[in-house]
From TrEMBL:
Protein keywords: Membrane, Transmembrane, Transmembrane helix, Transport
Family affiliation: Belongs to the major facilitator superfamily.
Gene3D superfamilies noted in UniProt: E3 ubiquitin-protein ligase SopA, MFS general substrate transporter like domains
Protein name: Synaptic vesicle glycoprotein 2B-like
A molecular function GO annotation: transmembrane transporter activity
Entry's transmembrane regions: 29-49, 56-73, 85-108, 128-147, 235-255, 412-432, 439-456, 476-496
Subcellular location: Membrane
Domain annotation Major facilitator superfamily (MFS) profile: ranges: 1-534
Length: 534
């Protein structure tokens, strides 16, 4: 997760600038292609290090595409209906999340032990899942290939003839039912663009000079964000994006992890306690020994054979002249135990499972090779998939509500209402003590919060003129990825503390964000409604 966020941060900055320098369509095509290719390659990576590298590159493509797609799409629709159409665009972000959750539910094994068994196959299910998830990315590349460049970008670059051709094509699409209609405007009536950015050409025209010239142009674009008249807008949106992403991504980690904690606590409460028993010449060969605590138990000439030992703890026990054969273990430990003259054959009972034990003349033969990670067989991915699917589904109606209200109510009012209600809703975190309660709360919270997030996306796109639009969005998006990483790390540490901590943190962030928006609503709308910036 962290390496994907890192890739999205890099991609947002680099491709955001490319969108303003080489064009929306070319930059978006390259970003989508990077995401698609490396997303597919990830499924075939043989080692964890290379796997992380391809995930990083795929994340770069994802992060690079997001700033450009907003600018590219908004420059094809009229200002009066921009909020509605861009909200419809955001609906498909939620649909993509639902698609991913459904594919995970259908493809990936749903229990920890089934994951281990699935890994015995050469091409395991999680690899199939990654291949399936890369298909929409390739489809997006194919679809975008047949789309024209943004006419607004062409005008900004002084390419009026190309812009008029695009406008005529759009007019032809919109008047397909009226073949006799003719486009009325000419190049002379087109809105004027900005004069092209002048760069020093003393360095020559070679490849190195071209790279240096592009870098200077990109740097100049970013510097405009930090100078008047955009400095105030950039500073405010920077804080808003950071706070919103910190809270949202942090809670998105806290919800599933807290469900796992509740299930783990319930599982521990249901453990079987065996105390002071003596087993002599017995054979344990059931398929599974699960959730048992042996306290001060004696095992003499006992055989454990062809079984899975899951969440079993031997405490203050005596085990001698016994055999452990063909055993697979998970979260199984021997503590303060005396072991003598035992044989461990074809097992994964590694040295770290013996904690403060007295061991004499034990034989270890044919330990299972490979990764020695103590993987938890008791994980139930069905609950994770269910929680994620419901959370993604609730984003769709929330986005639809935004589409209906955004152009009538206004961006700032939607953000204010959404984040205020999110702060109020966060107080109910204190009462979450069951899986059902957490899932219901997450659904309600996502429904409320997504309206403000969508309004922020659209307002950010409208707050900057076309010549720095994707650079600005990319920069702010990169900051949100940093906030997302910090949020996941911070809220991850809240799992084992009082629910008051995530409750108060979540309450504070949207409230502060709302206060910033309230103080700056006039400034944001003044920029977005300036006819020179449309």
């Amino acid at each position: 997760a962290a390496v994907t966020f890192l890739g999205m941060m890099i991609g947002a900055i680099v491709w955001g600038a490319l969108g303003d320098s080489v064009g929306r369509r070319r930059a978006l095509l390259s970003a989508l292609l990077v995401n698609a290719v490396f997303g597919l390659l990830t499924a075939f990576m043989p080692t964890y290090g290379i796997f992380l590298t391809t995930r990083l590159c795929s994340g770069i493509g994802i992060g690079g595409g997001i700033p450009i797609v907003f600018a590219y799409f908004c420059e094809f629709v009229t200002c009066s209906e921009r909020g509605r159409y861009m909200s419809w665009l955001l609906v498909w972000w939620a649909v993509g999340g639902v698609f991913t959750a459904l594919m995970a539910w259908l493809i990936i094994p749903k229990t920890g032990i089934s994951v281990v068994l699935d890994e015995l196959h050469h091409f395991s299910s999680w690899r199939v899942f990654l291949v399936v998830c890369s298909i929409p990315a390739f489809a997006a590349v194919l679809g975008l290939y047949f789309m024209p460049e943004s006419p607004r970008y062409l005008l900004e670059q002084g390419r009026d003839v190309e812009a008029i051709m695009v406008y005529k094509k759009i007019f032809k699409w919109n008047t397909a039912n009226n073949p006799g209609a003719e486009y009325q405007l000419t190049e002379l009536e087109m809105p004027s663009g900005r004069p092209p950015m002048e760069l020093d050409d003393k360095e020559g025209r070679g490849a190195v000079a071209g790279v240096c010239g592009t870098f200077k142009k990109v740097w100049a674009l970013f510097m405009q964000l930090l100078m008047p008249p955009y400095l105030r807008t950039t500073t405010i949106l920077l804080c808003v994006w950071f706070m919103a992403a910190f809270g949202f991504y942090g809670l998105s980690v806290w919800f599933p992890e807290y469900i796992k904690l509740l299930k783990s606590e319930e599982y521990d409460r249901n453990a079987t306690i065996v105390r002071g028993t003596v087993y002599i010449s017995e054979r344990f060969n059931a398929s599974r020994l699960d959730n048992v605590r042996f306290l001060n138990v004696t095992f003499n000439n006992v055989t454990f054979d062809e079984m899975v030992i899951n969440h079993v703890t031997f405490i203050d026990c005596k085990i001698f002249d016994s055999i452990f054969s063909d055993i697979r273990t998970s979260r199984t430990y021997f503590r303060n135990t005396y072991l003598a003259r035992n044989m461990f054959i074809d097992t994964d009972i590694y040295e770290y499972r013996f904690q403060n034990c007295d061991m004499t003349d034990n034989i270890f033969s044919a330990l299972v090779p490979g990764c020695t990670l103590d993987f938890d067989y008791n994980i139930h991915y069905k609950d994770v998939f269910q929680e994620n699917l419901i959370g993604q589904l609730t984003l769709i109606p929330g986005t639809l509500v935004t589409a209906l209200l955004l152009d009538h109510v206004g961006r700032v009012r939607i953000m204010a209402a959404s984040f205020t209600l999110s702060s109020v809703a966060a107080f109910f975190i204190w009462f979450l003590d069951s899986k059902i309660g957490i899932i219901v709360f997450e659904a309600v919270f996502n429904f409320i919060f997504i309206s403000g997030w969508n309004a922020l996306d659209i307002a950010t796109t409208e707050c900057y003129p076309a010549h720095i639009r994707t650079s600005a969005y990319g920069f702010l998006s990169a900051v949100s990825r940093i906030a997302g990483m910090l949020g996941t790390l911070t809220f991850g540490n809240f799992i084992y503390v009082s629910r008051a901590v995530p409750m108060l943190t979540t309450c504070t962030l949207p409230t502060w964000t709302y206060d910033v928006r309230r103080r700056t609503s006039i400034q944001v709308w003044t920029v977005s409604e300036n006819p020179n910036l449309q």
